[in-house]
Amino acid sequence: MKRLGILLLLLAGLASCRKDPAPLPAEISRVEADPGSVLKGMYLVNEGNMSMNKASLDYLDLRNGLYTRNFYSQVNPQITKGLGDVANDIGIYGSKLYVVVNLSNKVEVLDVKTGKRLGQVDLINGRYVTFANGKAYVSAYVGRVYDPNSPNGVVAEIDTTALSITRTVSVGRQPEELAVVNNKLYVANSGGYSPNNYERTVSVIDLNTFTEVKRIDVAINLHRLKADKYGDLYVTSRGDYYNVPSKLLVVDTQTEKVKRTFDLAASNLAIDDDVAYVIATEWNQSQQKNTISYNTIDVKNELLLSRPFISDGTQNSILLPYGINVNPYTKEVYLTDAKDYVTPGKLHCYTPDGKLKWSVTTGDIPAHMVFVK
C-alpha cells in the first residue's frame, strides 16, 4: 500500500511537470523592400517532415522587406502544438486563408489580414485546394498514408461562410492538384500508393451536379495540374521512378484530350501570363539520385523556350528545388529549396532576368506560396 502511494505521488509529480510544447518563436529577417509593391505580401507554408508535427507558416512583407518565420505561432500562441503535421497546400479566397494540413486531417482557416485562426474543417488526408463560386474544393486521399489498398479518393466541397463540408464526390485513387475551368473541376489522380497499379486519369466534375462526368486518360502517377488563360491544363506525370520518365502534358479542356506532350521532367510549375516556369527534381530509384532541371514554356504557342529562368549560375547551390511562385506585377520568381527535408530550407527571389536578388531561411520543406493583395 505504501509502495502504491509513492507510485501515485511520482505519477502526479510527472503529470504536473509535463507541459505542451511551446510555440516556435518568431524570427524576423530583412530582405530588399519594395515600398511601391502592388501586393502587400506573401504567405509561405512549410510542409514539415512526416510525423514530426513541424508544419509552419511564414509571412513575407513585401513593402517593408520583412520575412517572419513561424508567423502562425506568433499570432496564435494559444495553439500550443502549432500548425500540425505536413501542410500540403495553401490558398486565399475572400478574406480567409486556407491551409490543408495533410496528416493532421484538417483544413486550417485563418484571417488573411492577421493570420489569426478562425476555425478548421476536418478532412482525412487532405491534399490540395482550389476555389469557385463561394466554395473551396479540397482533394483528399481519405485512406491511410501509404496503404496500397486505400479506397478511391474524394473532393470535398466546403462552404466558405459556414466552414463546413456540403458535398463530396468520389474520384480516382490518391487525387492531387485540381483546377476549375468553365465551371468544371479537373482533378489529377495519382494512385501513388500502388506503384504496380498507378492511376493515369484526370477526373472531370460538373460543379452544378457535383458528379464525376468523365475521366481523361493522360499518363501514370499524375501530380500537378495548372490551368493557363487559354483553357488548357498543364499536368505533370511523375513516371514510375525506374523506366518511365517524368513528363509534362497539356490537356485541352474543350476536347478533354491530351493535345501536347513535353518530354521533360516536371515536379512543379507556376504559370504567369504566357510563361510556365517548370522545375524538376526527378528521382531515379535504380541510380539512387535526383536529376534537377529548370525550364520555361510559352503556353500560348506551346513551345519549350531556350532560356532558363535562372541566368547567374546560382541554381548550382540549390539542393532540392521544391516550390515556385511568380509575382504577376514585377515578374520576380520565388523559388524554394527543401534541402534535406529535415532542416530549415531557403526562399530565393530572382529578378525577371534570372539574377538572384535575395535569399532567406524558412521552415522545414518550404513548399506552397500565395500572394496577399
TrEMBL record:
Pfam families named in the record: DUF5074
Superkingdom per UniProt: Bacteria
InterPro entries linked: DUF5074 (IPR031815), Host-pathogen_enzymatic-act (IPR051200), Quino_amine_DH_bsu (IPR011044), WD40/YVTN_repeat-like_dom_sf (IPR015943)
Coiled coil: none
Record-linked PANTHER family: DIHYDRO-HEME D1 DEHYDROGENASE, PROTEIN NIRF
Protein name from the UniProt record: YncE family protein
